[in-house]
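Researcher: Structure for this, please.
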Amino acid sequence: MRDSTFDVMKGIGIIAMIIGHLQIPHLLRDFIFSFHMPMFFLIGGYFFKPQPIKDIIHKSSIRLLKPYIITGVLTSVIYLLVGDIDTAIFRGSGILFGNNGSPVAIFQTPRCGAVWFLLALFWCRLMFNYIYNRTRLWLILSIGLSIAASCLGYYIINPPLGIIIGMSSLIFFAIGKALKEYNIPMRWIILPSIVIWILCILYSKLEVAVYLYKFYPLDVIGACGGTFVVYFIAKGICFHTKILKSCFLFIGVNSLLVLCYHQLVEHSIAAINNNIAEFHYNAIINIVLPIIFTMIHVSIGRFYTSKIKANRT
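Model: Predicted structure, token format:
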């Protein structure tokens, strides 16, 4: 039986992501970005199981590519509905590139928004599955490919379809897998990584979506430390607060839906106000609406599922 702690962690992580997109103090933003997206890749790696290539492509396409494409198309449609054709084309081309660019890359590309994670995780899962099935040096190879991809994406260009951002995230996915597979004694790494994480929050900067690692090795270790802290917090929530556990558990289990509705709400308000900053300042709309839409989405899905089952019987 799956430990619900990890789903609560994802719930905390997705709320942290939304807060990170608000107009917040720089230190709070650096705190959130130091762990929140790496944590999702770490958890994905921790629970990864090798599969035949056809199976992983099929499953990942349904779970990740399908919502990515739907959300991307709807994002462009939102701007078309208000007559903003230029932004609709810009957002549509951003979906083709599947990343959020880099502040210093020689060749700049359109940005796809928060759903970059879906495409990145899709490629990350496929690449890691291939590497893991073909060599015992999967950890070393994943780290090497991540470093190379991060340098390419940050300094030169982001090729289309989000392949490079997925490759740059391999390091977190591989570390997650290594933590489980090698049964590494946690007491050896938890405290040092948390100390490094605190130092990184104060003196470094990490932003996976734009390949930004100010001090690469320390930022990676620090992200692991931040993930450990969230694990302990989630563990405490699971043991001591049933209401919070239920809330974060629902959000965590449906974190990809929350992510998609977050992007749609964000750009709906941006299109209406012609100013995305209006959305960033409204924390209530930013956090509450994506969760409400997710609840409606899940409820409708359960209703139709029960109808189908009833008809079959």
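Researcher: Any notable elements?
Model: The longest strand covers residues 206-207. The mean pLDDT is 91.
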